[in-house]
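Re-run with default settings, no changes from the original entry. Doing this only to confirm the output is reproducible before filing.
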Amino acid sequence: MGRKLNTLDDNLYFRREICGNPWTSNCEKRNITIYINYKNEKKPICRSCWKEISNSEYEW
């Protein structure tokens, strides 16, 4: 018998997203800090990628 998801923490654990940095396709971190709208798509961005993006001159 499978385990039932019945708490908010359980649901968040299984729904954790991978970083979707459009300028670094190889990032697989899951500590999502912010979402950006890039080419009309919502992209999750991890803490380290956001630090890089916010200190750069990328446009989105």
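The radius of gyration is 14 Å. DSSP finds two helices and two strands in the chain.
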